Amino acid sequence: MADLFDIPLLPGLSSTRDFLTGGEERTLIERIDAADLSPFRFQGWTGKRLTVSYGWSYDFDRGRILRGDPLPDWLLPFRDRAAGFAGLPADNLAQALLIRYDPGAGIGWHRDRPAFEHVVGVSLGAPATMRFRRRRGERFERLAAPLPPRGAYHLSGEARHEWEHSIAEMGLPRWSLTFRSLRR
Predict the structure, then answer these.
(1) In terms of residue numbers, what domain contains 57?
(2) Are 9 and 3 in contact (CB under 8 A)?
(3) Per-residue pLDDT reduced to its tens digit, 77-136
């Protein structure tokens, strides 16, 4: 997610294209599909994407973070690799969110909840585009970054706290694995 001169698209946004091998991607997709996924819930509304969280989750109906089941052992090597990519101690990535986006599913404009700090995502399946926006007066400044299959991204600093992000509804299936650290 850099331009022609290797300058980051957005301060606090870094990425890598080859975070996983094709075999690892297939294994993760199988594991996500085998997980106890349920429709995303937000203040009484049910979304099209299917999710499950480990370590911690955010209850949007109650507006608070909740401790969840520990990260399964099969996720730990990917959590450790994500932490290395982000330059964080592995134990700092205390939450994992698995998501399956079936055709027609996306994710609206948002910032991750303030209880979380660093966000490290891994993209699986169909390629997508992460859109970014921030208000500038009465208008929005907008940017877009590719999310290639088997790639990873890290949101921190300005990208994490000053910009909202979203992914438009897609016509093909996509999966993601997101790790987050807790805000201290």
Answers:
(1) 13-182
(2) yes
(3) 999 999 999 999 999 999 999 999 999 998 889 898 888 999 999 999 999 999 999 999
